[in-house]
Amino acid sequence: MDVTVDGTDNYVIGVDYGTLSGRAVVVRVRDGKELGSGVFDYPHAVVTDALPADVAGVAGDGGARLPGEWALQVPNDYRDVLRHAVPAAIADAGINPAAVVGIATDFTACTMVPVKADGTPLNELPGFASRPHAYVKLWRHHAAQPQADRINALAAERGEAWLPRYGGLISSEWEFAKGLQLLEEDPEAYAAMDHWVEAADWIVWQLCGQYVRNACTAGYKGIYQDGRYPSEDFLAALNPEFKDFVSTKLEHTIGRLGDAAGYLTAEAAGWTGLPEGIAVAVGNVDAHVTAPAAKAVEPGQLVAIMGTSTCHVMNGSELREVPGMCGVVDGGIVDGLWGYEAGQSGVGDIFGWFTKNGVPPEYHQAAAAAGLGLHEYLTELASRQAIGEHGLIALDWHSGNRSVLVDHELSGVVVGQTLATKPEDTYRALLEATAFGTRTIVDAFRDSGVPVKEFIVAGGLLKNKLLMQIYADITGLPLSTIGSTQGPALGSAIHAAVAAGKYADIREAAAAMGSEPGDVYTPIPENVAAYEELFQEYRTLHDYFGRGANDVMHRLKAIQRRSAAASRAGAAAVSAAPATVGASA
């Protein structure tokens, strides 16, 4: 393919939308060299407590507190990434914007935006800014678990053919559960919504003016299998008002990964500083675009994108039913292969939670004195321990369990703490717990006839060398890290090059533009043996709390919800009561 224009290098832009920020990378088409980058932090971050006053139009904190398990975002923050991060990346690269031939984006998933027919988000309409259901529901919005439970029970009862494609369970994070929650909790907002859109597709719509639904999220998050969605009969059995959800809110033209969804509009060219009319690739998911960036486009190469959460993606040559997987989609990663997905809802988030809430001041002071961040300091202390020395086993469910249990009512556990337990002990136990969770996923694939031959890590956590060695030892797999620090953005850039016609397909583009390995970790036999003993203890706890032997976590969640509802009701009654005027002496 011709990867230059008149013999001059040309470039593509990859934009990676994460949980807290968006990152743009300028990539040279002929060899994948990353020349410049820009980052923009979302001004409103993740909305979990109350709607922000500056967008909700409500004085004070934005209104009533949100219930537990909610996670919202403000869609205009995504536009601001285009306005700020893309121009910053071009300036950092020092290139002529006229040499850019395409742009592609990837997004967290399942992240949903309720919009009007022209793509305007509901929260930007008069009368809707103060309504929580008018905002983006981020991937980690888990408040639709009751709806997911009903979907799963009904699908199992009816023997729906699509259910095994998702490991037997649909997640509360996905399109149908979140859509049903919207209908049942705010029917007016549901009625006002014309399209229930993945953020991955909404941002492409903003760039090119065309709404094209990407094949990746349609398959993995939208229960689109073998050319169709769940039937109207199934949806009506969930709720009669949900019968036409697919036909009126969800269904739309589906674009193949690597194709052009359209071309950059004049408005978007103004935001980004890029030439009007360049190719805009069909949207994609942050994890799935990373596989080509890591040159992992063949069966058996498991790619883990490790950050606040972890998503595991892998190609397979055959269709298999894997219990607890997030999904298997024909061509979900690259054409001609079955794309498998699994994941863990909390990984880096768990480590961050612990350092924020579980470490005493003297550790912060010691880390600062050593010139280290707190994570680095705890890692250094933990690395001095022999395997099992801390006497702990943890379950990595602080944000629920995505795979293989698919249950966001589950919660974290640490077993074995004593008065002698130190912060570095718990920290290492949490690192190991996430690796045990990944081992559980690897075993599920292998036991179902999907071979896992190597383990490739992308994302921010690859910088922790202790963590990487722990993963190699616990999984027993050779582990390599992607050489790029911007794996998803590079993967998007690869898709942009294909959409611009510079390569025939994703495989060809990945071979030329993909990143070479960074660090390589080999399992240490004595460590593998030591961790095998601990993994058996993890698996015992995993099954005891996660497979119904003891439902204490579910009961605690129910008690928590009742107590929180009573507390909110009491607070509302107090605020509504007339003020009492005391008698003067």
From TrEMBL:
GO terms for biological process: L-arabinose catabolic process to D-xylulose 5-phosphate. The keyword Membrane does not apply. It comes from the Bacteria. Keywords: Arabinose catabolism, ATP-binding, Carbohydrate metabolism, Kinase, Nucleotide-binding, Transferase. It catalyses: D-ribulose + ATP = D-ribulose 5-phosphate + ADP + H(+); L-ribulose + ATP = L-ribulose 5-phosphate + ADP + H(+). Residues 303-500 form the Carbohydrate kinase FGGY C-terminal domain. One of its GO terms (cellular component) is cytoplasm. Pathway: Carbohydrate degradation; L-arabinose degradation via L-ribulose; D-xylulose 5-phosphate from L-arabinose (bacterial route): step 2/3. InterPro entries: ATPase_NBD, Carb_kinase_FGGY, FGGY_C, Ribulokinase. Its EC number is 2.7.1.16. Pfam families: FGGY_C. GO terms for molecular function: ATP binding; D-ribulokinase activity; ribulokinase activity. Belongs to the ribulokinase family. PANTHER family: FGGY CARBOHYDRATE KINASE DOMAIN-CONTAINING PROTEIN, RIBULOKINASE. This is Ribulokinase. It comes from Pseudarthrobacter sulfonivorans. The lineage of its organism: Bacteria, Bacillati, Actinomycetota, Actinomycetes, Micrococcales.
